[in-house]
Amino acid sequence: MLKEEKHVGVLGAPNYPAPVPPTVINIRSETSVPDHIVWSLFNSLFLNVCCLGFVAFAYSVKSRDRKMVGDILGAQSYASTAKCLNVCALVLGILGTIGVIVLLGVGHVAVYQMVSEFMKKNRGY
C-alpha cells in the first residue's frame, strides 16, 4: 500500500460539525421588459429608412439601461417607443423594397419598348 493511499484511508468520511444550510437564490418576479435591441440592430443595419432604425436602436439601449437600473416604467416607455420605430422602419423598408422592384420592372419594360421602337424606325419597317 502506498503512503498516500494509507493516509486517505485513515482520514475516512468527512465529519461536519453542523448540517450545511441550503443555498437559496431569490429571483425577482418583476415583469420582463423586452428591449427589442436585436430587431433595432437589424433595422439600423438593413432597413435604415430615414434613420428610424438607428433611433430605434438608441431607444432600445436606453430601455436596457433603465431595466438594469431597476426603473421598469422607464424601460417600458423606451421599449414601446423602440417597438413603434422598429415597426415604422420595417414597413417603410418593405414598401421601399417593393417600390424599387416595381420601378425596375416598369423601367425595364419601358426601355425595351423604346429600344424596339428605335430599331423599327431605323430599319424602315
UniProtKB/TrEMBL annotation:
Compartments (UniProt record): Membrane
Coiled-coil residue spans: none
Chief location category: membrane
Keyword Transmembrane among record annotations: yes
UniProt entry tagged with the keyword Transmembrane: yes
Residue ranges crossing the lipid bilayer per the database entry: 37-59, 87-115
Keywords for this protein: Membrane, Transmembrane, Transmembrane helix
A Pfam family this chain is assigned to: CD225
PANTHER family: INTERFERON INDUCIBLE TRANSMEMBRANE PROTEIN, INTERFERON-INDUCED TRANSMEMBRANE PROTEIN 3
Family stated for the protein in its record: Belongs to the CD225/Dispanin family.
Protein name stated in the entry: Interferon-induced transmembrane protein 1-like
Originating organism: Vicugna pacos
Gene: LOC140698870
